[in-house]
Amino acid sequence: MISFNLESLTSNRSAIGARNEVTADAITTVKELSGGAGRGSFNSLSVEFGLGDATTISNVKIVWSSGVTENYSSINIEIIF
């Protein structure tokens, strides 16, 4: 599993609305950071992805709520037990 704690400098600071795409072992998973689903509720601000047996993430794409896109590639994963 990998977890991202996003913080924006140009969009809203909590990064709510940011779209995250992680590609590992030719599978892309997409999650969008949401603040909550109703009155009085609030979701965690970290975004988590399960990676299975993957040892490398081929691409991480973040599309901020402002529309700015960032891409990171060839990220090695360190396995810690």
Poorly predicted regions are none
Instruction: Report mean pLDDT, rounded to a whole number.
Output: 85
- Helix segment tally: 0
Largest sheet, strands/sense/barrel: 4 strands, antiparallel
Q: Which range does the strand content fall in?
A: 35-45%
Q: What are the main properties of this structure?
A:
81 residues; mainly beta; 4-stranded antiparallel beta sheet; two-stranded antiparallel ribbon; globular
In short:
The chain is an all-beta fold and 81 residues long. It has strands at residues 2-5, 19-24, 27-32, 46-49, 56-63, 69-76. Strands 3-2-5-6 form a four-stranded antiparallel beta sheet, with no helix packed on it.
Verbal overview:
The protein is built from no helices and 6 strands. The chain is mainly beta. It has one domain (about 1-75). The strands form 2 sheets. Strands 3-2-5-6 form a 4-stranded antiparallel sheet, with no helix packed on it. Strands 1-4 form a two-stranded antiparallel sheet. A hairpin with a 2-residue loop joins strand 2 and strand 3 (about 25-30).
